[in-house]
Amino acid sequence: MPALPIADGFWGAVHNTPLIRLQRASEETGCEILGKAEFMNPGGSVKDRAALGILQDAVEQGLLVPGQPGTVVEGTAGNTGIGLALAANARGWRSVIVVPETQSREKLDFLRMIGADLRPVPAKPYADPGNYVHVSRRLAEEMQAAGGRTIWANQFDNLANRRAHEQYTGREIWEQTEGRVDAFTCACGTGGTLAGVALALKARNDRVRIVLADPEGSALAPWVKAGTVKATPGNSITEGIGQAARVPGNLEGAPIDSAETIPDAEALQWVFSLLVEEGLSVGGSAGLNVAAAVRVAKALGPGHTVATILCDGGARYQSKLFNPEFLRSKGLPVPHWLA
């Protein structure tokens, strides 16, 4: 295996994560199920790619200047905020991160630890002016009016997000599989990962099947299947994925073939299996992605290759996914080693 080149700090260390063969999922389906190890990005998640793409775009537009005062404002479920804060630190900018207070304690503590100006707000639906996205936008506008270089990252509708995945993530998957990829599955929060990878893979082979993985309570799967933005029944403990009331700008026009709605119990089955059987610690969205990949592989039949995203590590959800009391309170299975 060739040695990787020396990277220049955070900005040079994002991208080029390995694809990992998921043994149990592959054996169960007779296919190659491959997970992109996004927890190996410097900020620990796939959202480092979006954060870097958005800030690179801001620099190219002259909205931020490395080494000169500047502020990055964003509303996030946590991981994009972490990526933005670390990338901003590396260029001498401050970060103001608005987060729903219901997000995992581990992510909130990490944001404080890395120097973000953290602004937790009550969790409210997108239609409410108090929703974290709207709060972050208004905050950025106030800071812009006061003078100084300030940007609102706007990860949901900023197409620099999906361009980063089209330019890098999708190309990496194609090259790592040597073009032998039959399907790709991924959950959506902003939609940047799924849309960008879809555009990259379809440009190289329009027969690659693109499947959105969705938690219960989200409206994205119905939108893909029927064009209606109406949430499915139920709810989910997963963080940062699914949309109950709107389609983010990054998903508009993306070539998506189908969607799978995955209940939490099915996603957690893969979170726990990957940890105890394969030594891979991942969060709930990664478990949901693998569950969708398994469904797609079974539908395609043996001999196919399905790629997906291992979005982040499980340590960011210790107080929820690996907390027996929390799991029992939600009627979810508790892994035997914690029971």
UniProtKB/TrEMBL annotation:
InterPro entries registered for this protein in UniProt? Cys_Synth/Cystath_Beta-Synth (IPR050214), P-phosphate_BS (IPR001216), TrpB-like_PALP (IPR001926), TrpB-like_PALP_sf (IPR036052)
Query: GO terms for molecular function, please?
Result: transferase activity, transferring alkyl or aryl (other than methyl) groups
Pathway(s): Amino-acid biosynthesis
Pfam families per UniProt? PALP (PF00291)
Q: Which residues form a coiled coil?
A: none
What keywords would UniProt list here?
A: Amino-acid biosynthesis, Pyridoxal phosphate, Transferase, Transit peptide
Q: Name one GO biological process term.
A: cysteine biosynthetic process from serine
The yes or no answer to whether the keyword GTP-binding is present is no
Its cofactor is: pyridoxal 5'-phosphate
> Which parts of the sequence belong to the Tryptophan synthase beta chain-like PALP domain?
13-312
Q: PANTHER family, per this entry?
A: CYSTATHIONINE BETA-SYNTHASE
Tell me what this protein is called.
Cysteine synthase A
Q: Which species does this protein come from?
A: Teichococcus coralli
